[in-house]
Amino acid sequence: MIVSRRSSVSLLVAFGAAVAACGTPAGTPKESPLAPLEGRVAYLPDDSDRAARSLAEAALGTDPTAARAQLAAFETTERLRVATGEPPSGLFAYARNLVDSTSNDPIVYRRATAQLLEDDDIDPALRKQLEMEVADDPLLLADKRIGEGRRTRIARDVNALSEALGRSLLSFVFLPIRVAQAVINVAVAEHLDDPISVQERQALAHWKEYVEGHPDTPEAHELIARIDELQQSWFDTKRRRSVRAAEQALDHNQNALALLLADRALRYAPGDMTATRLRDDAKRRQANQQADLAQSLAATPGPLPDEGNPEARQLMVAQLAGGDVPAESDALLAADPAGPLADGARFSHANAIGEAGQESAMWDALAEIAGDDPATHPMARHANALVESPFQNPWEAFEAAKGGDTRKAASFIALGPLQGGARDRDLPRSIEWLLEAPTLMPVLGGIPWRLVQTAIAPPEAKAPALAASRYLERYPNGEHAAELRDYLVEHESDEGHWVRAHATASEISNTPSDELAELAEKAAAQSIEQAGKQQRRDIRLAILQATSERYPDTKSGRRANELLHKEIDEATEQKIRISRGYLIENRNVAGAGGLGLRPELLDGDKHNGELHPLGVTLLGGRVLEIAMLAPSGDEDDEPKTLRQTVSAERLSRVVSLLEETSARNALLDPLAEQGADARRDFFFERARLGIADTPDARPTAESTYAFVGMREKYNMVRSRESILPVEIVISGSLPDLGLGAFPRLRTPKQTPDAVLFK
Question: Is the pTM above the cut of 0.70?
């Protein structure tokens, strides 16, 4: 393309003007941002209005013939209107849909609606609603679900083989392994598939709905056999799941649960051999368990000997009475180590030395008792319960958790996805390990990458931190308290939990003051951040007040105090915001029928005043806060706000238009749906009734909802989903040096109600 010199100069001048406009200070509107409310003149109904009223009256009556006659009369009125040069009223499609909806047969209604959709002059919102009505046909939905299930299975198998071939572009040596692995995975997936897929279950529900509503139609008689077939597949699925769950319950010694699941499987498949065997095994185990429990409950303690071991008895009485540990306790325990009270004496002695401050000695003594045979040493079971309890023995729990995390990290580095063993494929364990053979080479090749991954982003260690917190709560001055406080400070700092890190560091007497001050600053900043996420005003105020009192000497603590006073001074009943982007996309809300904003505030020209991106905020009552661009014209600067009290009529128009526009947008585009907010709806209802002037100062009544435009919500122009059934995928993997591009079939998306059929 050839551009003349004059055109080039014009373009440069225009570009310079645009750049200058970006930095030009914003002007201030000379008038109020809101135009005067337009009065509504009395509306005089014409022939179309009167015909529509007669039609609605007949349709809401009990005579369908009268409704059809009124529809014909309304159609005649519309034709006369067009013949005289007047524009059509736009009500004819609504009138036809109203009369069609009076039919008692849903099939007749859907067919009439499909006919109506062939007309061109239909409001887009009504067209969308009619399309949804037509699509809500049980037979159409069932056929669609069956097709989706078939495509999902085919796409899964084809994509597995396509990925195996495509990922071997740079590593042909792995091609046979990947192809073999893909074939095995496809076979295993087919084995794991339920007899009836989720989509087939949905189709079964639609068919049942149709047959129950239309039992005498020819389609219903044809569906009976298909329903019986899918119903049997559903029973097979339920039996298979129950048997699998019963086997797992038996493996975990959950005998009662296994018995329940086995009985459930037998209800779906009476006489099933596997379910019968599981039920018998569960019954036998449960009977043995009940017998052991009965024997334990029937045991009665024998009389305590008075003279069998007087030294041990003397020691036990002294310790249980709360006295000090006798100096000759070791000698007393050694007097008769096999006596009937020796175990009790050792147990009480261990507790006594623990109370005396010898924590490690206590747990060593209890561990020694726990190692005895419970059949001959009655206190072994009690000692073992204390030693193994993470609440009673948090230090051992801390050590075990650290060791467990270390072993888990080591197994991840060495085995990667196989660290938990071969994946469960509902096959014998030996076969499951055999199926993992093709993955061994990539797993071993990924060890260096997993080493780097673990070094860069180590896994979060929650269990040791929890055990350390329990220890400090139980033994604040214990032998390991100082060590665990240091550990918790480091752990919480690594996780970014600055409030907890500062609280723990404050308990350490030798923490450097500069380090403590740094933690306090970060903790205060984190508290302010958490306060900003709270929707309730009283919770925000409580957090800010606690932050200002807990960290008064920090910059963020003083900032919390400022925010606290600002929150109190500027507290309003509501903060429902309507952004500039939303007002630009929905001009009817900003126009004379809604807010009544002056047009120049949304024309993009900063010289005559421009609305800030924050837009307009409903502050409760009849007060609006209008955010204007700052004098600098920069959208990032603090806006200039104007508060204006509007009439009850204008406020009622605004909230009604907001709800109507949002509902219409969501109908036309599901991504434009505005979220639910009960406090917003409560205020809107009060505004419509004209009682918004009565303040509702409850913190639970405040809403911070924001109506934002689509471009603001997605930060960019939304991409449309491709209509092609195939997409190209570029895949890479550092562990096995896999890189490739391959086609992949798109799988149908599951419907929102699919979770109910899983």
Answer: no
